[in-house]
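To whoever is on call:

I kicked off a structure prediction for a single chain this morning and the downstream step that reads the tokens threw a length-mismatch warning. I double-checked the sequence; it's 234 residues and nothing unusual in it as far as I can see. Pasting both halves so you can look.
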Amino acid sequence: MKRLIFKKYDTEIDTSNIKERLFGKVNFGQKINNNIYPFTLDFIKKLKLQPPKKQDKIIRKFLVSKQLQIILENQRKLTNKLWSRKLESEYFNSTKKFLNITLDEKDCFKAYFTYILLCAYYVDKKYFFISAWNSPLYHINIIAHELLHLLFIKNYKKYCINQGLTENQFENLKEALTFILNEKEYKKIVIVRDNGYPDHKKFRQFLSKQWNKKRNFSELLAYGCEYSKKHFSK
């Protein structure tokens, strides 16, 4: 059973995604600037002044060009080819072992391509975005990163909140746990190093050190919860 489906480019979904990224919450020290978005700051400021329907219309102008559609479709096909059944099987087997979880028939996901650089995910809808601005080889890293988020949230968020973590502390733990993508468990899957956010450098180093002692996720999660409560605000 194929657990990840690469959907054809959808301008409506990406328009909604882009607006949320441009005007909504930005993660862990990221800034809206030309290094993150292909839109200029001046364009974003002017876009904010427009009514919602006008915003949608303006954004869609960037997304409907035939050249962009061809590029996105080619990237989708190549990424789908790289994310082979063998690679997918290796990924989910490694993740099941790491998180100490089982998967059922409902654990299936969708990936959409986006015109912007940021790659968001939507837990309830079980899909995430891959940026058209990255190479297909780096797309594998994005897939591994975002799927790990989705599976960790599904299986452990309630537990972490019950352990006294706030939403902010849980979010920091969730991000720091992607250190595992640089460990031997994912050596055959992830090609480019997953550096995470600068705010989590010490947290990731701490988790890596704890993991390499016993490779026991229950113990790792306990250490991670305590670290997050101690070092990140409520």
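Update from on-call: the warning came from a stale cache, not from the record. Cleared it. Sanity check on the structure: The chain has a mean pLDDT of 92.
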